[in-house]
């Protein structure tokens, strides 16, 4: 006891000094947050829920209740105008819906993607998950955005080969012409994943419903939402099991992707015949580098995972929303179907020229993304001072852009909630930097051309082959799961059309 007392008496001053340092550091941080508030509080914005966490409590609560946080962003835009401020700790986000600012920032390569959020996407709960290079300032000489994705015929050839194999309903179900009640959204997720396994030349064993891939993708996407929007999510004991589940899902996607890449590289090096698909193109683009570092190899894998996950999810949801709106507007459905019948008829194969003639279907898909941008927003870090809509914004903030909000503001689109494909008629005025469902500029979506081509081919084939009507009584709400998806699942009565292809 005497020894313990001596040790305690010796340690007490050190503990008191450490405690004093912690108190001073805490007070210093509080003063810094107050300084940030004073620096940016001239910008309009909603009241903070708390001194430290700003408006984040409102958003986290909406997320926990399966709410759509983008509706809150829209509400704030309508209340506070085209520029408003959000706070969390010492971070400041400036949400802006000014077309000139959108053009200035998104079209410039000097504004990197917002570091706080995208670093979390890159390392999902500490597990490396997806592509970093297009999220932040590019430090690699290796550009994994293959040029063929921007060439119409290249994307077209891969899209058509990919969409020949899958079926709707997906493989593993069978029905013969009679009406079937079907949750289209879940089927489309499997359908598009099926096209992706063809486009990447891999086997996910979807036929036997034994593949862990669909669930892993869903788990990763949902985990991203919690990780980005709730900074304390992983530190709450009740979430520990879920966090581990997300890490395992991310690990599965990367290890499986690494295995596929390794097998394909070996086949290429051995001179074996390999498919001319996305995976081959990614590897060949990488092989053009003079030397490949270990980080370059990881970067190639990042791009693979990004393309595979993000492309599958967003395309499936886009198609789900499109079918939902066509079901709600029979006159638009009939017009789109007539165009498909006139251009394609009963042909099995859709030519590249055929796609170019499906003008109204393109309008339908563009209007779908206006109201339902499946990847609804993006953000950039801005280091220097800016003036936005007459308001001086000190440098050191994140500029947040929401295609969801812009698409639903009547200052940009008259009667914005009305589904009207004629907004995108070739002779209609083009939206001026208020429509960007794939973002804009050098850090826009990696596979947007492929995604648009794929959606057009799939919708054309669905309209050619099936009749569908929405089951009454379902909601048309949006589920905000990081990407946006139809909450009801788009339940339809589906049947083959009278003729057979």
UniProtKB/TrEMBL annotation:
Instruction: List, alphabetically, the PANTHER family matched.
Output: CYP46A1 PROTEIN-RELATED (PTHR24293:SF0), CYTOCHROME P450 FAMILY 46 SUBFAMILY A (PTHR24293)
Record's keyword annotation contains Transmembrane:
yes
Taxonomic source organism: Amphilophus citrinellus
Q: Where is the chain membrane-spanning? A: 6-32
Similarity field: Belongs to the cytochrome P450 family.
Record-level GO BP terms: cholesterol catabolic process
What's the protein here called? Cytochrome P450, family 46, subfamily A, polypeptide 1, tandem duplicate 4
- What superkingdom heads the lineage? Eukaryota
Name the InterPro entries for this protein: CYP46A1, Cyt_P450, Cyt_P450_E_grp-I, Cyt_P450_sf
Which terms are listed as keywords in the entry? Heme, Iron, Membrane, Metal-binding, Transmembrane, Transmembrane helix
């Amino acid at each position: 006891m005497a020894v313990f007392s001596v040790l305690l008496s010796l340690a007490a001053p050190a503990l008191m000094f450490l405690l004093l340092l912690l108190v001073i550091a805490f007070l210093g941080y509080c003063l810094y947050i107050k300084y940030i508030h004073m620096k940016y509080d001239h910008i309009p914005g909603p009241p903070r829920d708390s001194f430290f966490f700003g408006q984040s409590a409102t958003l986290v609560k909406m997320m926990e209740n399966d709410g759509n946080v983008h509706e809150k962003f829209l509400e704030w835009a309508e209340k506070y105008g085209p520029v408003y401020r959000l706070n969390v700790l010492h971070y400041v986000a400036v949400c802006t819906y000014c077309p000139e600012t959108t053009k200035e920032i998104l079209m410039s390569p000097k504004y990197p993607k917002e570091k706080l959020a995208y670093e979390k996407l890159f390392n999902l709960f500490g597990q490396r998950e997806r592509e970093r290079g297009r999220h932040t300032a590019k430090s690699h000489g290796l550009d994994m955005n293959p040029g063929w994705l921007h060439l119409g015929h290249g994307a077209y050839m891969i899209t058509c080969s990919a969409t020949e194999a899958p079926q709707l309903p997906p493989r593993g179900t069978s029905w013969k012409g009679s009406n079937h009640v079907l949750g289209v959204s879940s089927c489309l997720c499997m359908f598009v994943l099926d096209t992706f396994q063809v486009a990447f030349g891999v086997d996910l064993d979807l036929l036997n419903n034994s593949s862990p891939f669909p669930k892993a993708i869903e788990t990763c996407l949902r985990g991203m939402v919690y990780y980005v929007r709730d900074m304390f999510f992983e530190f709450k004991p009740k979430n520990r099991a879920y966090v581990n589940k997300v890490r395992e899902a991310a690990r599965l996607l990367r290890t499986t992707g690494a295995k596929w890449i390794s097998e394909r590289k070996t086949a290429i090096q051995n001179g074996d015949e390999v498919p001319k698909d996305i995976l081959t193109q990614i590897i060949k683009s990488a092989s053009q580098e003079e030397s490949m570092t270990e980080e370059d190899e990881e970067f190639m894998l990042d791009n693979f995972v990004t393309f595979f996950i993000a492309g599958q999810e967003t395309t499936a949801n886009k198609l789900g929303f499109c079918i939902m709106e066509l079901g709600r507007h029979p006159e638009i459905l009939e017009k789109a179907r007539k165009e498909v019948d006139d251009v394609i008829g009963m042909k099995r194969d859709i030519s590249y020229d055929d796609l170019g003639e499906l003008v109204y279907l393109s309008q339908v898909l563009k209007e779908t993304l206006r109201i339902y941008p499946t990847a609804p927003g993006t953000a950039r870090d801005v280091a220097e001072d800016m003036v936005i809509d007459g308001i001086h914004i000190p440098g050191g903030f994140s500029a947040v852009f929401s295609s969801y909000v812009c698409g639903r503001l009547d200052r940009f689109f008259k009667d914005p909630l009305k589904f009207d494909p004629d907004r995108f008629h070739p002779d209609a005025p083009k939206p001026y930097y208020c429509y960007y469902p794939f973002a804009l500029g050098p850090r826009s979506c990696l596979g947007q051309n492929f995604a648009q081509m794929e959606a057009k081919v799939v919708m054309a084939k669905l309209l050619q082959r099936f009749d569908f009507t929405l089951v009454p009584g379902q909601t048309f709400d949006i589920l905000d799961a990081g990407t946006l998806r139809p909450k009801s699942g788009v339940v339809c009565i589906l049947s083959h059309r009278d003729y057979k292809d």
